[in-house]
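S.,

Sequence below, as promised.
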Amino acid sequence: NSQGYGFGLQYDMTPRKNLTFSPFKGLKSVFLLKKLSSETINPLPTNLMFSSSVRSTKSFSQSSAGNITSQYARYFNGTISASMAPLKTVSLGYTFETSRDIRDDKNLKFSFLPKQAKLGIEISRSQSFSATYRPKWIGILDQNFSFNSSYKENGDPVQLHGTKSVGNQSGKSANFTFYWQKIFGILKPKAEAKKGLSPLNWVRSFVGN
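The prediction came back faster than expected:
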């Protein structure tokens, strides 16, 4: 037999408006920096979310000899997720997660002072970061460069007896997509197209018929 309860809270602190500005507009006249002139900067996050949940369970079991045993568990899970696009070609993401054992009330103390506050015993935590860069140097080729990194820490005192298990990993990749259909748009004779000639008529006029 078992019984339990659970509840969760979520707080969205994402700015409702973007604060963008273009500091590179003056470079529009410079040929090599013309692409940079259209770049904008946004210092605010595009997503900022805080969420938490508490779950408690209590179970009872009876052996064949009639002995009754019980198990009690109460955990707190918290998550912080954020993302931002400081440039139009750059996107960043970050996530933090923690799981804590709050069965013992002695390990709970609410205070506005971080050094005095207690929120149970941390069992595990994890962090992850990702970054993507899409420069779009030329129209017919889409470039995508990405980097990601994650960190996990397990410090469950019951399983690890005062020690911690730590692991991290990272990776990077580069992807290129070639849009061959756009080549036909680049090679299309704009001057002849203005005269109302079809592609077949343009070929005939080009060969001299």
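The chain is about 15% helix and 50% strand.

Coffee later?
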